[in-house]
Every structure is written in C-alpha cells, then in structure tokens.
Amino acid sequence: MGKTKLFGSLGIITAAALTLAACGKSGNNDDANEGKKANKFPEETPVKTTKKGGTLKQAVLSASPATGIFAPELYTIQTDLEMMQPGIESLFDTNDQYKINNKGPATFKLDRKAKTVTIEVKKGVKWSDGKQVVAKDVEYPYEIIANKKTKSQRYTDSLANIEGLADYHNGKAKDISGIEMPDGESGRKVVLHFKQMKPGMYNSGNGYFWEYAEPYHYLKDVPFDKLESSDKVRKSPLFFGPYRMSKTVRGQSTTWVPNKYYWRGTPKLDKIVLSILSPDSASQAVKSHRFDILKIKSNQWTQVKNTKKVNFVANVPLSYAYMGFKVGKWDAKKGKNVMDKNPKMTKPLRQAIGYAMNVDQVDKRYTKGIKFQIPTLIPKEFGDYFDKDIKGYTYNLKKANQILDKAGYKKKGKWRTQPNGKPLTINFLAMQGTSVQEPIIQNFLQQWKKVGLNVKLVGGRLTEGNSFYDKLQNDASGVDMFNGVWGLSSEPSPNDLYNEKAPFNYSRFVSKENNKLLAEMDSEKAFDHKYRVQKFHEWQKYMDREAYVIPMDNAYEVSAVNDKVTGYSLKPSDSNSKYFNVAYTK
Fold it and tell me: How far apart are CA 281 and CA 85, in angstroms?
C-alpha cells in the first residue's frame, strides 16, 4: 500500500532489427482485441473446498536478481516487495475502493478538528517470533524513514506533515514530537499529530502516514547506517503476516512456512516458495506448469492463452510506463530536487520526442492489445480524477518536426543541431528486459531518427537492472532521458512522485506552478471533492504541456493460476490477507 517503485525499460538490437514501420499493421482484429478478452477475466480464482497442506510455487518475473531488502521502509525495487508478500502485512485492510476500514491488524480513527489519526493495534497481532505488535513498532518505521543514516527514499514532504518529523530528520530533535504513545511504548495505541489534515487520509496509500510496522525489539540494536545490510533485514526478517521467512537464497528465492502466531488463524499451506524467473522463460513455464502462480508478460499472452489446467485472473493495475527527462539533480543536503537553469532537455525537445513515439502501434504489434496507450499521469481507474479530455502524445511525426523547427533545432545532414548550432546527442538510459523489448527500443530509436534526433543508449547497450536503478537514483552524469514504470499508491495524489522534495521525482523537475497545484489538490480545501477533481485536471493539463514525464502505456495484469489452487484474489479488499486465503483444493 504506499508508493512502490518498479522500473521497466526497453532494450535494443542491431540496426538490422525489425522496426514498427517494417512490421506493418498490428495484425488481425482478433489479435488486437486480446485486451478486451483479458478484461473479462475474473479478479479471483473459483471458490472451492480446500485441503490443508502442500507447497505453493510462485514465480516472480525479473530480468535481474532481487536485491533482497526485506523492509518496506528501505526497499526500492518492486521485486523485493513481491518476494516478501507471503509475510508482509499492512496495518490496515481496505474495501475495493481502497478506503481504510477497521477489519485489519489495526483500527483507524481520523479527527479533523484535533488534526490527529489514532491507530490501535489489535490484541493478538503478533510478530512471527510470538511478540505482540506494540506502539513502538508502529512508531519505529518513522525513525527509520526520517533518519538520514538509513538513506531511506521514503522520506517525503507528505510525511513531514507529521509534527516534529522534519526536526527529527534534520537532527534538531531526538524524538518525533508528533507521534504520541498514550499507553507507553508497550501499549497498542499511537496518535499521530498533523500540521494539516489532508483529503486523501481516508484512503490507503495516501503517503501522509506509514502503513507498516517494524519489530523494534528485534531491530533496536542494529545501527541505522547498518540496517539495510543487516541479516535481520536481508536473511531473517520478522513479519506479522500469515507466513514467516524460513530461507532465502540471495537474489533468487524466498521460502515461507506458516506463522503459528498469525492473528487471523492458521494458514492452509505447508510452504510457499517464491523464485525469480527470467521474463523470457515465462510462457514456457506456464505451459509446462512449472509454477502454481505466474504473472504473464503482455507480449507472451498469445503463446499461453490456450493452456489447460490453469485459471486466468486479471485486472488493470494502478501503474503506468513513462518516458522521463533529466532536467536537474537531487540535493541530499537540502533534501530536495534542484532543477538546472538551462536544461539540455528543453520543452520542445521533450514534446517532439513524445510525438515521435508510436506507442499504440508498438502495443498492438507486440502485445495484441494487452498493453494500451494512456494519455495522462492519472490512470482512468481513479474515476473522475482522470481527465478524459487530454489526448496525450499520440504518434505524429509531422507535429514533432514542426516543434523542433520552430524551436531552432535545425537539421545539419541527417541530424539536428542545438539552437546554438552545436551537435546534439541525446543519451537514453534503458534497462535490460525481455526479448521483445529489444526490437521495441530499436523501433523508437528509428522513429526519433526520422525527425533528426540522434538518440544513443548510455554505454552503447542495455543497462543491467540494479546498475540502472543506481544510475537513476544517483543522477549519473551522461543520462538525458530514461524509461520507467510506476506502481502507484491506492490514493490518487501524485505528490510523493513529483513534488520538489520527492526523492522519487527522478526527472528532478521543479516549478512554482507544479508546487502550487500539488499543494492545492491535497489541501484542506480539497476535502471538497469537486475542488479536488478540478485541481487534478489542472495538474494533468500542466504536465501534458510541460512533458517532463510523458505517460506511455499500461497493461492488463494477467496471472496463470494452477486450477487446483483456490483463494487467490487480485481484489483490493483481499490484498492484505491474500496468502492467508490461498490453498489447494480437495
């Protein structure tokens, strides 16, 4: 529930590779409509009579090893989150609209007048070592996030709305004054005091308070600067979810057995094994029934759609792929993004690059409609917050050329020069991926070439996943643009991704207008729904014009599940107890 980060990127092959122009049309109508078929799949497996026992094998698709950081305050790669799913559990359950309810491990009470949120952990919610989850365990993650020694990327301007958190972060206070434990550290109640109340606070993933706990009794002796690398995070983490981690093979797999202290009851499976699987091997793994649960890559759907003895479940996840442009740096001392006064990647250049990308053709050609182009940075799944009037960057080479001509990017031979007449080379950071990502990136390079833009890969080739993240997060020199994917929180505010103090604002763009619109959409006034919708629409129009980040596409998330498995669900209301309900059928 909180913001999660997952990057996708596109790969290249030789200049002889197939381009979209050479691929022709997207194929027959049946292929192009596979997305409509996926839309009809249920979000959960059929309900059947269960039996106790069995080992569930699940694949986690990744072209790179997991980094193995099993703490929600510290991990930065989606793969790590997926590898700890059987054990990790949020403090709160939600309904299918992501609104927090009191059915989960803790109860939630918001008081607008007092500017507080009260969280009370239920009696019997225990860590996998048998210790009760207490108030200090709810408070401790804020220390982890806000202490600069941990180098956590979760500290945001949104969390700094808690009284005293910024003072703790900046070393001005030893404690966080706005986090109260009325019954002491060993009690079960925590009261959070805020500077301002925000309209998104009723929803999970709002970013204004943390939704996980950490076992203080277990971690308190580990120095903050050693926490991320410690065995207590990497090899033997504690969770209060249905399963506990019994084994990990670094970067490759995690093994889980029942948490005998689990507060909802006894899990039904004997063991769960999560293993990293190369995306290129996914289709064969589905057809050979190598795993019980496996997400299907969009380009491989047609290869597996007729597989027997599996149930397909699907939804449209809260995520999107995007093209980002580096226009500044992260200032660690000031804790904010600082934009270049004269960035190389100018507005006309960004816009032209966007119009020169034939995203819709790519999606239809390679995924048969399982992927689809999106127009804005707010997904349609967020209802009226989505601005349906924005068209986005649809393929238009003529418009791309006109923009570049008008801005003074003149052609000198086959390439355009900068307005000052100097040569222009654009360095694109792209991560290793599946085999079809290679012709896709080659296609885009060819499209940009058509409008005279000399775009080259950083290092002359695809970048290994972990190295890619390192370059992006640390603003490596020689990176002008990059391709990524955001997994979004379940509260629609984009504040923690794109504001001035957001570490995840990887483009590093900053403007008064952006700050203003983001502040307005999350202000007290925005408790008025119509006002908040208006500000969301204004922000989307602004981002569309400025093109610091250009939305590309999303995809139906389809999973193949062994037809002897029941209880697997993609519904938001089931997400916090997903693995507790999973079992084999009789």
Answer: 22
pLDDT tops 70 at residue 11: no
Contact 552, 323 (CB under 8 A): yes
User: What is the residue type of 329?
Assistant: K
Mean pLDDT value across the chain: 92
Paired with 560 in beta bridges are 294, 312
Return the HEC string of 62-92: CCCCCCCCCCCCCCCCHHHHHHCCCCCCCCC
3 state SS for 471-539: HHHCCCCCCCEEEEEEECCCCCCCHHHHCCCCCCCCCCCCCHHHHHHHHHHCCHHHHCHHHHHHHHHHH
* N-term to C-term CA, the chain: 33
The helix or strand, by DSSP H or E, that contains position 188, with its residue range, turns out to be none
Backbone angles phi, psi at 97, to 5 degrees: -100, 15
pLDDT digits (tens, 9 = 90+) for 170-221: 999 999 999 999 999 999 999 999 999 999 999 999 999 999 999 999 999 9
The strand pair at 189-193 and 116-121 is best described as: antiparallel
For residue 190, list its beta bridge partners. 119
Residue 2 has pLDDT above 50, yes or no: no
Residue 193's pLDDT is 98
